[in-house]
Structures are given as structure tokens and as C-alpha cells.
């Protein structure tokens, strides 16, 4: 990921509807599928600027792994009590040993990695036998935008593709669903318009520019409302995919 993005994400993550909506959805799913025990340990792989670390702290002692020193600095500002480890995923997973974790999150990380199946296999060495793994990735190649290029994504996924990779890596899937479903139609419209209009400003190219306050509140409400459904059903399409898995 390009270095300027760490500054950009740190600036917008606490306010932007997408990051806040995703956080609410993930916390609701964690509450359903994960039961923390005394002395539980939680790891956020690719923790970035640390937006999720503070929220994850209620589930146990929190660790983060990231390869970028600037990202780690931001993570420590947001969550001073978290233990942040410098290292790449999956190359430096040994930096975490002999620790074993009860809950591991890999949120919008796999799409950055050349061999994503090998990366998933590496997680098995640090996940406890009864532990839970939570993954999110972007969905559908046809939704590829300049945002994917700036973020140095290797791919976008279908639910079947992600499911096969998780299973091949030795996990059993507890739940896998598309999400970011309610904003799906607007996203397709934006993708269509990108073919017509070119956008040159850096922030516009990211596709995450800050919106008007009322617009932002509406989309946060729209997106986060999916949490009321995802605990019981799977969505047939969406901009992203979430998977919850355990060791097979």
C-alpha cells in the first residue's frame, strides 16, 4: 500500500461511513461467534492505523501485526495498550511465536498478498484449537477501480473463491457471506460513471473522499443496518465478503 494512504486513512477512518459501518457489522458478528475466556488473546493481522484495535480489546489482550512503521505509530496512538509487532504477513509470522490466539482478524488484507492460500495456512500455527478466524475481502472483479490499484490489491474475490481457499488451507467455515450489500447499487453506478468521467485529484481517485455530513450519516446508517440481518442470514451479493472460520 502506498505510504500516503496511512496518513489518509488515519484521518478519515473514525468518521467515514464505510469504516464505521464495517466495524459495527464485524463487532456484531464477533459477539455471535466468539466467546472470550479469561486471558484470551486477540490478533489483528495487518492492523494498519489501528482503527479496530481499541474495539477488539474488549475480547481479550490485543495484539497487532503490520509491516509499516508509520501504521504502527498510528496504532499506538489509537490503542496505547495494544501490543504491536512489526512484520509482514505471512513472512514474519514467527515474530509472534510462541503466542497462540483465541481470535484472529484479517480484515481487507488477503487481497494484498501474492499467495493468499499459503498466508491462510500460516495462521493455523498461531490460532488456538477452539479459536475463531474472521476474514474480510473486497468482492467481484468487475468492481475493480483505481482504489484497488492505489492500494496495490492483487485481486477481488467471489464467495466461492474465498470459500475454496479457506477450506484448502485447513479451516472449516462457520459462516461466509457477501456484505456491504445495501450500498451495492450506488457502487455499481459509481463504477459506471468512472468509465465516462476521469478523476485526477488524488483523494477522488481513492474513492473514499469525505462526503457531506448528511450523506455520510445516511450511508453509515444504511451500511451498518446490515448487522441486524447478517447474524441470521447470508447476503447473495455485496461489495465485500466476510468469512468466519475455525480449525478443521
From TrEMBL:
One GO BP annotation of this record: methylation
Tagged with keyword Oxidoreductase: no
UniProt keyword annotations, A-Z: Methyltransferase, Transferase
Entry protein name: SAM-dependent methyltransferase
Keyword Transferase: yes
Single Gene Ontology MF annotation: methyltransferase activity
One Pfam family it belongs to: Methyltransf_23
Amino acid at each position: 500500500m502506498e505510504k500516503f494512504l496511512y496518513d489518509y486513512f488515519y484521518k478519515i477512518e473514525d468518521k467515514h461511513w464505510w469504516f464505521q459501518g464495517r466495524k459495527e457489522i464485524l463487532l456484531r458478528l464477533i459477539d455471535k461467534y466468539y466467546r472470550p475466556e479469561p486471558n484470551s488473546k486477540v490478533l489483528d493481522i495487518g492492523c494498519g492505523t489501528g482503527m479496530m484495535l481499541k474495539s477488539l480489546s474488549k475480547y481479550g489482550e490485543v495484539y497487532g501485526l503490520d509491516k509499516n512503521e508509520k501504521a504502527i505509530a498510528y496504532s499506538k496512538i489509537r490503542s496505547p495498550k495494544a501490543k504491536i509487532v512489526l512484520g509482514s504477513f505471512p513472512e514474519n509470522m514467527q515474530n509472534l511465536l510462541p503466542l497462540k490466539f483465541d481470535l484472529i482478524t484479517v480484515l481487507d488484507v488477503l487481497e494484498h498478498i501474492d499467495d493468499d492460500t499459503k498466508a491462510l495456512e500460516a495462521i493455523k500455527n498461531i490460532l488456538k484449537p477452539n479459536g475463531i478466524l474472521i476474514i474480510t475481502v473486497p468482492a467481484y472483479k468487475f468492481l475493480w477501480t483505481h482504489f484497488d490499484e492505489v492500494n496495490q490489491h492483487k485481486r477481488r474475490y467471489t464467495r466461492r473463491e474465498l470459500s475454496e481457499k479457506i477450506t484448502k488451507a485447513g479451516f472449516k467455515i462457520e459462516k461466509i457471506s457477501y456484505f456491504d450489500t445495501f450500498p451495492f447499487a450506488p457502487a455499481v453506478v459509481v463504477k459506471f460513471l468512472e468509465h465516462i468521467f476521469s478523476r485526477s485529484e488524488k483523494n477522488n481517485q481513492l474513492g473514499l473522499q469525505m462526503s457531506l455530513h448528511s450523506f455520510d450519516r445516511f450511508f453509515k446508517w444504511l451500511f451498518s443496518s446490515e448487522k441486524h440481518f447478517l447474524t441470521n442470514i447470508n447476503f447473495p451479493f455485496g461489495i465485500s465478503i466476510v468469512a468466519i472460520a475455525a480449525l478443521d
